[in-house]
Design a protein that fits this description.
Length: about 230
């Protein structure tokens, strides 16, 4: 049986509140709350099961940025993930699903370590909860980055305010926990899977562990979580 290049899993909470996950990268490609889309996906994004999806929430692992041995931002966003637990309604009415990525021949060519990544999503009435964990089942210590590269859909980035950064040191490009990115016009022109007229409609607020590596001794797990909420 032919396996489709990309396929999606939908968490449906009712009341036009849904979350759609593409198994290519376990990329959340849509989050609708009362039918209002919250995430940006470029019209130029290519769904060929090879390239990363340009938008939604790609998962950056095992490294942020370029690498000598593998693709930019790692292979998790271009690997096909398994659906570990299909969407299930919880007693609260919320909907939960789980995804998993294990090391395989392909990942071993770029990063020769065993690992298990587990991604758990819970869709609530106005919130989306993310839990992601990296487990090291091997005998060697692992060192990696992990980040959720969230592309928010906004009416006009030039009129956007991102709060909660007060007191943070501003470093152009990187910070240990949160990164804000928009290509703006010139860079947008250079990105093949991004329309140059689209930059006002998105802003990435990325949370993760990128400036220093996550160090995982054998048999240990690193867990991170993120909650998105519509006010
Ligand atoms: O084009 P990509 O590989 O998806 O990377 C998109 C962007 O990701 C991050 O936000 C980096 O800080 C940017 O430098 C990079 O351009």
């Amino acid at each position: 049986m032919a396996v489709p290049a990309t396929s999606v899993v939908v968490l449906d909470r009712g009341n036009n509140t849904t979350c759609t996950v593409n198994l290519h990268g376990a990329t959340v490609v849509s989050w609708r709350v009362n039918n209002q889309e919250q995430l940006f996906v470029s019209k130029q994004s290519v769904f060929d099961g090879k390239r990363p999806i340009r938008g939604g929430i790609p998962i950056v692992f095992p490294q942020f940025g370029p690498s000598n041995t593998g693709p930019q931002h790692g292979f998790a966003r271009i690997s096909r993930w398994e659906l570990k637990k299909p969407p299930e309604r919880l007693p609260t009415g919320d909907v939960e699903a789980m995804f998993q990525l294990l090391d395989n021949e392909y990942t071993r060519t770029m990063w020769n370590y065993p690992f298990s990544l587990t991604y758990r999503l819970i869709l609530r009435e106005k919130e989306l909860h993310f839990n992601i964990s990296v487990y090291n089942p091997g005998a060697e210590t692992l060192s990696c980055n992990l980040l959720l590269h969230t592309y928010f859909k906004v009416p006009d980035v030039r009129r956007c305010q991102i709060t909660g950064m007060r007191g943070c040191t501003y470093i152009d490009k990187r910070s240990p926990i949160a990164l804000v990115w928009n290509p703006w016009l010139e860079k947008a022109k250079e990105i093949p899977d991004f329309g140059e007229e689209e930059f006002p409609n998105m802003v990435c607020v990325e949370s993760g562990h990128v400036t220093s590596p996550i160090v995982l001794p054998p048999g240990t797990v690193f867990e991170a979580s993120q909650i998105l909420q519509v006010m």
